[in-house]
Design a protein that fits this description.
single chain
């Protein structure tokens, strides 16, 4: 099967979007489960098996108990490290918004 350069670019862009959505979902699961009865294994089962954070970031997010631990896990992934550098210290909700805006402006999708 022969693919054009344009279709490969579309495929790459789509892949980035899917990875970002998987990571955003993992972040939301982690944030919403802090202080609940959800165990580390329960969290891990809810995460997808792809994304920029998969698998090591998911492992760290599963054990995170506060936003600093979440930030530490995410900063190990270079695109997210750059976003944290841009937005500085913010609340988790503002970070989620900043994540979407910065990824869009930086070409992640």
């Amino acid at each position: 099967m022969c693919y054009s350069i344009a279709s490969l670019r579309v495929q790459e862009r789509h892949s980035r979007r899917v990875d970002l959505q998987a990571d955003r979902r993992a972040l939301n699961i982690t944030l919403n489960s802090i202080g609940t009865e959800l165990t580390r294994d329960d969290r891990r089962k809810l995460y997808s098996n792809f994304g920029l954070l998969y698998p090591h970031g998911h492992y760290e997010l599963a054990g995170a108990e506060d936003f600093d631990q979440i930030r530490s896990a995410m900063e190990k992934c270079p695109p997210y490290q750059a976003i944290f550098t841009k937005v500085g210290s913010v609340t988790p909700l503002l970070y989620c918004c900043a994540l979407m805006l910065c990824c869009k402006s930086s070409g992640l999708f």
